[in-house]
Automatic annotation (TrEMBL):
Name of the coding gene: Fastkd3
Cellular compartment(s): Mitochondrion
Native organism taxonomy: Eukaryota, Metazoa, Chordata, Craniata, Vertebrata
Domain RAP, residue spans: 490-548
One cellular-component annotation, GO: ribonucleoprotein granule
Species assigned in the record: Urocynchramus pylzowi
Pfam families: FAST_1, FAST_2, RAP
InterPro entries: FAST_2, FAST_kinase, FAST_Leu-rich, RAP
Keyword Mitochondrion applies: yes
Protein name as annotated: FAKD3 protein
Keyword Mitochondrion: yes
SMART domains for the chain: RAP (SM00952)
Swiss-Prot/TrEMBL keywords: Mitochondrion
């Protein structure tokens, strides 16, 4: 049977039983046909969990194929040799077996003699990488042979393989930035030809190789990834999201592609992929209601199968970005159920982050606070990195303040004062300098003297107020330094873009809880958001706006 007919018949078969039956009917096979048969067997018998039927390795036909490759390796064609090697690696044949040792040794000898074509080099490189313990010297040899050819003529497959090899050699301390610069430059010209898999692999390599200088290539790959979002596997999409995070990329068209893809795929996506999508949204401050609503529904149906880290990754962004989905009641009911079951399995810092995020959006974790405030738990927190640093203590303090102000019925243990901070550090939501200056200038115009308002005012309740104005009983403004006869306190919250979700008027959770707590503590909270003041062109208009916002009764 000629090779064309052989491969046509082989490709129509769907089980190893049918393949073995077909092979038994043949009197003679070339090594290319035999290696093709091994590849077909590996395709039908190997899935993500490994070899479906280990018993097939004892099949007589399979053993005869292996015998041919083991004892006639020097007579094999390059294609037959390397295709067989790839198939046997996929079938999880022991790398130390005489069969594999023979094939690897023959491959390396031909590499040393310069007998392998570019396609052969790719196949050998992929096989060595798959073994996960490759000799760095052999991989370097492959790259050196590749470089003897014009790098500009490399195919996408060759480019991807070299990136993968460079990841291994760099991990072993080898420096190859000159080659990387050339490779990055060539890859930039081929981006439009890359498949979803190749684009994902290259982005992952650029992250591992820390190619922060390859801005043009990274940007082009990220843009190219947009059209592939529906076609990425879970693993590929995770690689792409990690690249967006590592390189600081944020593209509206990519978010829109995720918004179309995630709701349709939420029930089939791997939880780790969903976690990475939520991490991306959270880090980039992207409140995407289609994504968050879908994830909330997905959590209700899949929470029992999630790890504790995945549970936290699904839920924390809701608090960070201050969003309650339409299914909030069922979402947090399910969360409470899984917390009761898995509470002891959570890492201490993960649990604090999770419960704190719930408090931000007024979902009070009352039943779990006795554990959080217990001396035993706090000792565990202190013993594990990052320990009881200022951020962790601030979260604990804010949880304690939340139950004090918003849950007066809470009768559990309190947070000891030694675990409380004196003021909440809020570096992410510090006032926008330019906006703050405009507001202070407007206030000075309105109130005539600087003594009538104070900025960055510390309170006894851990929060720092942007601007405070004091009034007496009749509503007259008092000097900011005056302590007596203060009847009302107005807290101006000068909210720049950094206190809102990206491209949104939705306050972040940290700022929302601060304003809520200030009101409960007796302050009259007046919000001065950037989007109301940015179009006001002069000081008089800003003063007029502030008059209307702060003293509406005397305006007009």
């Amino acid at each position: 049977m000629d090779e064309q007919l052989f491969f046509k018949k082989l490709n129509s078969l769907c089980t190893s039983k049918d393949i073995f039956c077909f092979l038994s009917s043949l009197e003679v096979m070339s090594d290319t046909m035999a290696s093709g048969a091994l590849q077909k067997i590996s395709e039908v018998e190997v899935d993500d969990d490994g070899l479906k039927n280990p018993g097939l390795l004892e099949n007589e036909v399979f053993r005869a194929l292996c015998f041919q490759f083991e004892f006639e390796s020097s007579k094999l064609s390059n294609t037959g040799l390397l295709n067989a090697l790839q198939a046997l690696i996929k079938l999880r044949i022991d790398p130390q077996s005489t069969l594999m040792t023979s094939l690897l040794s023959e491959s390396e000898e031909r590499l040393g003699r310069g007998q392998l074509t570019a396609e052969n080099l790719c196949a050998l490189g992929e096989s060595l990488l798959e073994l996960e313990g490759p000799s760095c010297a052999t991989l370097e040899q492959i790259v050196n042979h590749m470089q003897e050819r014009d790098i500009k003529s490399w195919s996408p497959r060759e480019i991807v393989m070299v990136y993968k090899i460079l990841q291994v050699t760099v991990r072993e301390g080898k420096q190859c930035q000159n080659l990387l610069n050339r490779l990055n430059s060539v890859t930039l010209r081929t981006v439009s030809q890359l498949s979803p898999n190749f684009a994902s692999v290259i982005l992952n390599s650029l992250v591992v190789l820390r190619q922060t200088g390859a801005v043009l290539l990274v940007t082009a790959l990220c843009k190219h990834s947009v059209k592939h979002v529906p076609y990425f596997t879970d693993h590929e999409l995770v690689n792409v999201l990690e690249a967006f995070l590592y390189f600081g990329q944020k593209m509206q068209i990519f978010t829109e592609a995720l918004e179309r893809h995630v709701p349709k795929s939420i029930h089939t996506m791997h939880p780790q992929t969903v976690s990475k999508v939520m991490q991306y949204c959270c880090k980039k401050m992207i409140l995407s209601k289609p994504i968050f609503d879908a994830v909330a529904e997905g959590f209700v149906s899949s929470a029992d199968r999630l790890t504790t880290d995945q549970i936290a990754a699904y839920i924390i962004p809701f608090g960070t970005l201050n969003y309650l989905p339409p299914s909030a009641s069922s979402l947090f009911r399910k969360l409470e159920t899984v917390l009761h079951i898995h509470l002891r399995h959570f890492q201490p810092h993960t649990l604090v982050n999770l419960l704190h995020s719930c408090a931000l959006i007024q979902r009070y974790p009352i039943n779990f606070l006795p554990k959080i405030f217990s001396p035993y738990f706090l000792q565990k927190l202190q013993a594990q990195p990052p320990g009881l640093n200022r951020v962790v203590m601030s979260q604990l303090t804010q949880l304690f303040l939340t139950v004090t102000l918003e849950c007066p019925f809470y009768e559990g243990p309190k947070l000891l004062s030694k675990y409380q901070v004196k003021a909440f550090p809020m570096p992410q939501s510090s006032p926008d300098v330019h906006l703050f200056k405009r507001v202070k200038t407007g206030l000075l115009y309105l109130l005539k003297k600087r003594i009538y308002f104070a900025s960055a005012v510390s309170t006894p309740y851990f929060y720092v107020i942007d601007i405070e104005i004091k009034l007496d009983e009749e509503g007259f403004v008092l000097p900011a330094a005056q302590l007596e006869e203060v009847h009302r306190r107005i807290a101006l919250c000068v909210d720049g873009q950094n206190r809102f979700c990206a491209h949104s008027h939705n306050l972040l959770g940290e700022e929302a809880i601060k304003q809520r707590h200030l009101q409960l503590l007796g302050y009259e909270v007046v919000q001065i958001p950037f989007f109301e003041i940015e179009s006001l062109q002069n000081t008089r208009k800003i003063a007029d706006y502030l008059h209307k916002k702060i003293f509406p009764c005397t305006y007009g």
